[in-house]
Amino acid sequence: MPSSTSVSDFVRNSLDDLKEMSTLNQIVIGGSAGLATGYVLSRVGKMAAFTLGSSMIMLQLAQHMGYIEIKWGKKSSKLRDLKKKALKAAEETGLIETPGQNEKLNKVLKEAKNFVQDNITIALSFGGGILVGFSF
């Protein structure tokens, strides 16, 4: 299994090779990658929205027909306890920002900004491709 440094080196080398290609090639590659990404994300998003929506409708229908009874008073206090536990677990695992993570985030954002500035053709064609992919 490749290490994370070899994967990052591969990505970096591929992007460097892409920078050396003609503008037309950069637009075609960026647009194609964006189109594929947008298409997949729109399909996954639609599927997730359908699943969540139909589940909510089925729960409401089951409650209305008397198959289940939801006692909201008890649920709200349990949800507050669950929220506290989830926040605590997120802090312990590092999912919630700490000062050190904020520095990492700023570094990643700076690198992304530099990438977009250095590769404006690829970035714009990728963004356009995502929008076109969402439309399918």
UniProtKB/TrEMBL annotation:
Name of one Pfam family that matches: FUN14
Keywords: Membrane, Transmembrane, Transmembrane helix
Topological relation to the membrane, as annotated: Multi-pass membrane protein
Keyword Ribonucleoprotein found: no
Amino-acid biosynthesis listed as a keyword: no
One GO CC term on file: mitochondrial outer membrane
Main location per the UniProt record: mitochondrion
Biological process terms in GO annotation: autophagy of mitochondrion
Location in or out of the cell: Mitochondrion outer membrane
Family: Belongs to the FUN14 family.
Protein name: FUN14 domain-containing protein 1
Organism: Brachionus calyciflorus
